TrEMBL record:
Pfam families: Pribosyltran (PF00156)
Official protein name in the record: Phosphoribosyltransferase domain-containing protein
All copies of domain Phosphoribosyltransferase, residue ranges: 4-151
Keyword Transferase: yes
Gene Ontology MF annotations: glycosyltransferase activity
Keyword Cytoplasm among record annotations: no
Superkingdom in the source lineage: Bacteria
Keywords, in A-Z order: Glycosyltransferase, Transferase
Length: 165
């Protein structure tokens, strides 16, 4: 039997991020900057940045997933780590594609909390077992999610790319 999955198409992603932005705006939250969790959060952050008219986007690289339902023991921040001076006193919206375990969002939120005026989290999906309950969620699911940017395999094998470099 095939495992049921949540399927997000590019078109539905556009609807999802627009509706997410509308929820954020309706609540009156006006972030000074959007902090994207790379890689999946890059797409959500860009779409939210346009919809909320926020041009100040930052990226935090965090490695956690290594495959379908496979992850490291703990998420790890990868360089370059944002300079806290750039975040100081700001209202920050952390954007990611999914709050699965919540570990990545907790790492990023905790990194921000001592330096920013306020930090809120927005995700396209949140899973029921996430340890972080996000401020803004488009949809809740307990299924594995096929995102349009990561459903197909890479066109370049990681080992081949390293050998050719």
């Amino acid at each position: 039997m095939t495992e049921q999955r949540e399927i997000l198409t590019w078109e539905l992603f556009g609807t999802a991020t627009r509706e997410l932005a509308e929820r954020i705006a309706a609540e009156g939250y006006r972030p000074d900057l959007i902090l994207s969790i790379a890689r999946g959060g890059l797409f959500a952050a860009g779409a939210l940045g346009y919809a909320l008219n926020v041009k100040n986007l930052h990226v935090m690289n965090v490695e956690f997933y290594t495959g379908v339902n496979e992850r490291l023991d703990l998420p790890v921040m990868l360089p370059p780590v944002p300079n806290v001076v750039d975040l100081a006193g700001a209202k920050v919206l952390v954007a990611d594609d999914v709050a699965d375990t919540g570990a990545t969002l907790k790492l990023v939120r905790d990194f921000c909390e001592d330096h920013v005026a306020e930090v809120r989290c927005a995700v396209v999906y949140e899973k029921p077992h996430s340890t972080v309950k996000c401020d803004y969620v488009w949809r809740y699911t307990d299924k594995w999610i096929n995102f349009p940017w990561s459903t197909l395999p890479p066109v370049v094998d990681a080992q081949t790319a390293v050998l050719e470099a």
